């Protein structure tokens, strides 16, 4: 069963008011232009956040309110939500990224993206996804965190290839980011051990510092990947 897209009730109310329309006008537009039998009371319930329009109703509502579907959504998270925000059907998106529609639909339903690197890059471009949005939409957050934790605590070179499969970023840039993360983690561990050597608390301090770094590793990774680290 599909979850509803994150409808932005206040945006719908604001856009309607800006056009000088009453809920009854919106209901009439939905019926006249799109053949949808929606009562004015339903439009009001949408705007109060008491009900959520179905995907077809959302697309039609955007047409009546002269806006893009994405303007009626809260921040999209899932692949399906991003697709709807861009006003694309599943079949159209599948075709444009080079996937069989059935295969794509299964990925969208399960929240697990399995496209290759070329298809991943096409998906990110088509849906205008930032890197963090791409990872969240493709259900790879925890996998990314695990790869990064392993990379900085062992040999980062061994995790470069798995990382390139997760994120559509040039290999050379990911190589630089991983090396920076690794050096930062290792230097912090060494420094913490040195600071604590006189008090006998080095091991405990080092463990705390390491756990803190690893807990924040995904945020640190994005900062470096964006060039803000």
Walk me through the structure:
By secondary structure, the chain is mainly α. Helices cover 66% and strands 0% of the residues. It is built from 14 helices and no strands. The chain has helices spanning 9-18, 23-34, 40-48, 55-64, 79-85, 90-97, 101-110, 117-126, 131-137, 141-153, 160-166, 171-196, 202-215, 217-225. Helix 6 (90-97) packs across helix 7 (101-110), helix 10 (141-153) crosses helix 12 (171-196) and helix 11 crosses helix 12. The relative contact order is 0.08. The model is unreliable at 198-202 (pLDDT under 50).
* Rg of Cα set: 23 Å
Oligomer: single chain
> What's the helix-strand series?
HHHHHHHHHHHHHH
* Average pLDDT: 88
The secondary structure category is mainly alpha
Number of strands: 0
**Biggest beta sheet summary:** none
Quote the beta fraction.
under 5%
Shape: elongated
Query: Unreliable segments (pLDDT under 50, ≥5 consecutive)?
Result: 198-202
**DSSP helical segment count:** 14
- How far apart the termini lie comes to 41 Å
Helix content: 55-70%
